User: What shape does this take?
Amino acid sequence: MTDAALPRDELVGKVSKAVEGGVDLVQLRDKSLPGGRLLDLACSVREALGGRAKLVVNERIDVALAAGVHGVQLGEEGLPVAQARKILGNGLLIGRSVHSTEVAVQAELDGSDFLVVGTMYGSRSHPGEVPAGPGLMEEISQKCHLPLIGIGGVAPENAAELIESGASGVAVITNILAAENPRAAAERLKDILMVSWNARITPADLGNGDG
Assistant: This one.
């Protein structure tokens, strides 16, 4: 997830380095920018990614369509998924932020492609929000079958816990974009996720090998 506090060129450069380190989905989020400037930024980020990672725009369906990115990320109180799907069609991704199991189940029924679950831990971007913790991730993973992304205070020290609780991935701002070396920070986090994913695979997931 991008950081609106960074200057444009620095942001684009750091996002590119993070993708080199293994980031495969970038969410462009800047509520302060008017549509035209956000479109310019989305196009710059898209060009910098060069097809190496998917790019979604937070909330702004119009900008996502105009920039030719992969989809949108909708807040829990954002445009309903069903209405967004009417505009975007079936070719683009729709993510929904959720903060409860009830909303997560409804978001899946409404046609979301993935869910961003939070807030997992205390974070700088949501200083007044009480974190739900990995228990919420585990509860939602038992009710939903969509890819789940944990958000909020995610760091190398707790990322494995979220994967163990049912997450498919994590969303990170500070621990990559504020790092001196975003590529190395992304590589470290991706290595932790890979180990956690592999540890979660059971013999049943692999099949019995009978062909």
